[in-house]
Amino acid sequence: MVILRQQDAAMFVEFAVMRYDGGLERTVVFNRNDLSVRCSCKKYENEGILCGHALKVFDTVGIKIIPPEYIKRRWTKRARAGDCFDRRGQEVVADPKVMISTRYRELAPAMIKVATRAAMSEDTSKVAIIVISYLSKRVELLLSESEEQPLQN
Fold first, then answer.
1. 46 is in which domain, residue-wise?
2. How far apart are CA 149 and CA 96, in angstroms?
């Protein structure tokens, strides 16, 4: 992206931005008071993703970290945590199988990493077997004590 021109006003700065290889010229308005941007391409309004034009303006004015109001929850690692609502405001209930799958995807690589390292020597292998045995018993105890069914969050 390249800044073609810039017009300063008291509170707003208007930028004309275009891709290096051509394309349409877009107008991006930067608000100095609340550090917000608005681009004529409307990608953020339509898709929830900041466009390259807006990112170029942030870079030009010295903002190197995207302001939190532009980071939609659905694009974060915590997207599935807590309540989630659809466009009509109806709560979306998470599929318990998806939650189990998510936890599995976190646990499996950690266990594989430990097993890989522990396999390097007999001593570390023995320690890993003892710890895994203890861990297995502890997990079973927690599951049997809880009122939670295996397919719940």
1. 2-75
2. 10
Reading the chain (153 residues) residue by residue, the pLDDT tens digits are 889 888 988 899 999 999 888 889 999 999 999 999 999 999 999 988 899 999 999 999 999 999 888 888 777 766 666 566 666 766 666 667 777 888 888 899 999 999 999 999 999 999 999 999 999 999 999 988 875 554 544
| Residue 30 vs residues 15, 41, 44, 76: alpha-carbon distances, Å | 8, 14, 14, 25
pTM over 0.85: no
Rounded distance between C-alpha atoms, residue 101 and residue 107, angstroms = 10
57 with 112, same domain: the answer is no
Domain count, the chain: 2
Three-class secondary structure of residue 47 per DSSP = helix
Residue 15 shares a structural domain with residue 55:
yes
Nearest to 44 by CA among 64, 67, 22: 67
